[in-house]
Amino acid sequence: MELKDIGEREAIKIMAELYGSVNLDDCATIDAGNEFFLITTDMVNEKTHFPRGAAPYQIGWFVVAINLSDIAAKGGIPVGVTLSVGLPANEDVDFIREFSRGADDCAKKFGTEIIGGDTKEVNSVTICGTAIGRVKKSIFMPRKGCHPGDVVCVTGELGMAGAALKALEAGNDEFADKILMVNPRVREGIAAASVHGVTASMDISDGLASSLYQLMEINGMGFSINAEGIPVHEMAELQGNGIELALYYGGDYELLFTVPPDKFGDVRKAVMGTGCRLTAVGEVIDNKAVMLVEDGREKIMENRGYEHFLGEKLFK
Amino acid sequence: MELKDIGEREAIKIMAELYGSVNLDDCATIDAGNEFFLITTDMVNEKTHFPRGAAPYQIGWFVVAINLSDIAAKGGIPVGVTLSVGLPANEDVDFIREFSRGADDCAKKFGTEIIGGDTKEVNSVTICGTAIGRVKKSIFMPRKGCHPGDVVCVTGELGMAGAALKALEAGNDEFADKILMVNPRVREGIAAASVHGVTASMDISDGLASSLYQLMEINGMGFSINAEGIPVHEMAELQGNGIELALYYGGDYELLFTVPPDKFGDVRKAVMGTGCRLTAVGEVIDNKAVMLVEDGREKIMENRGYEHFLGEKLFK
């Protein structure tokens, strides 16, 4: 059997079972007294991650940003990022200058820095970022922990990355920056965690639907989502298929929280204090299914989104 | 200008200067009270790291081992390893099972575990490991800190990986395990650090000569090495060019220390307590050069060893 027959998430499950010590959360945790150190690692490569027209600066920014997004989802304060940069031998030296400038700018913007690096020779540009964070154990926001009745909410707006992807597919190269210049919700995650109200949290990297299905598996319960409540980005609205882009397209890197109703006001206030929206989009249900309520009718939300190995191409 | 015109070490220097916050040590350090958290990351790939005949189990072991070797060089206790595994979509699912088993066995053998993982689709097998360790600040062994007169010493024996490489080049595939089943000197590093006597330390991944030249740059002083004193592995001796294989071939992953003469006995005793040799091979000199004394004559040691991008191929 080949990887394309099972997909990325099944492959991760096989590995996690073998190791026995992987928590299937956004970050691994290391015990450090009353804190956790958070470690997360993400590999990106030319084949599946970089749209046409991607500039080295944007790629550097992107690798750092998507790793910081995982730290943000746990309420963590970033304390450093390391980068392993695999490049072909005939790559121009300016690539590493521009790439490093983008990586450095992103790290600094979110209060941290690049603390280690490495370069290796490979066939096609492949970069592995690792971000390290710290968070008080008492406010760590896990993926597992929601209860029926909890409010499901998301930061910011969804669908912009999907809309940019559609524009790129239509031949408009100028939208690469909308996909790569990701804004990780670091301050928002820290603010939400400080309220002690979030029961489950993850970042939305492969689309809202995919994230909800992952939370369903981990928590053993489901969600009912109100389509009209989803905050759709105006770029997605303009394309006329905003809900589709918000649910089934990856790349938005917003945060997805569940919060008990009596805490929702406090969590929203804390997140809004950073200058970001927090919108209720549904609730946790005592039934292992992800439902979408649209035009007054409830149906099962499709379980699709970007997944590696399945023959999909994020960028054509 | 392309990367093949400048090589890996120059590329790392460009990046380090841009970041300003990279310490050019084996590991990045994060302040944690009276300890440092140590982070190191290493990417390996089919093109430059895997010899013909390499089994997925051995590749899994190798990625974990070379990262633990960097933790070992700082005297660190490993606390976890994460792995980003980039694979082609047509790779067999058994690859990840066998790879994960090798990675897990190596981590457990050296007292730690795999705490996080990720898979991505790429064109050729590319794996990025990140190891995390901790060490008391007072016994951290940096790359910079040696003084003229310090003893230069190495753990174990050198030249085995080079000898195995030569055997592979001669068509003998059964030596892949000698290259990939690396034995990181974790216990030896912890033992050496505990004595408070090591003034500079790094692991020997690209050959002894290359490591000495790197320490020379960082410390602004040089070394005089006695060829007859180098502990050459018997596989290298058998090939009749033991010193060549010990000095200029990578892959041995032994530790290289400098130690003041009055502390050397204690450091050696501590390392020998783990069941490993520690051999004096020369001394630190007040002159920015790396000298080799052979047959009573002193000459400049060549500055060569494995380096990415320079058109060398580790495995043909």
Account of the 3D structure:
The structure is a homodimer of 316-residue chains. By secondary structure, chain A is of the alpha+beta class. Chain A has two domains: 3-138, PurM-like, N-terminal domain (60s Ribosomal Protein L30, Chain: A, 2-Layer Sandwich), CATH 3.30.1330; 142-300, Alpha-Beta Complex (Phosphoribosyl-aminoimidazole Synthetase, Chain A, domain 2). Helix content of chain A is 37%, strand content 27%. Chain A is built from eleven helices and twelve strands. In chain A, the strands form two sheets. In chain A, strands 7-9-6-10-8-11-12 form a seven-stranded mixed β-sheet, with helices on both faces. In chain A, helix 3 runs parallel beside helix 4 (93-109), helix 3 (56-73) packs parallel to helix 7 and helix 7 crosses helix 11 (261-272). The mean pLDDT of chain A is 91.
Observed structural traits:
homodimer; 316 residues; alpha+beta; 60s Ribosomal Protein L30, Chain: A; Phosphoribosyl-aminoimidazole Synthetase, Chain A, domain 2; 2 domains; 5-stranded mixed β-sheet; 12 strands
N-end to C-end Cα span of chain A: 26 Å
- Which oligomerization state do the chains in this entry correspond to? homodimer
CATH class group of the largest domain in chain A:
Alpha Beta
- Gross morphology of chain A is globular
Which pair of chains has the greatest number of interface residues, and how are they split between the two chains? A-B, 73 and 73 residues
* CATH architectural arrangement of the largest domain in chain A: Alpha-Beta Complex
Overall number of structural domains of chain A: 2
| Main sheet makeup of chain A | 7 strands, mixed
- Structural class per helix/strand content of chain A? alpha+beta
Please write the string of helix (H) and strand (E) elements of chain A.
Answer: HEEHHEHEEEHHHEHEHHEHEEE
State the total count of DSSP E strands of chain A: 12
**CATH topological fold name of the largest domain in chain A:** Phosphoribosyl-aminoimidazole Synthetase, Chain A, domain 2
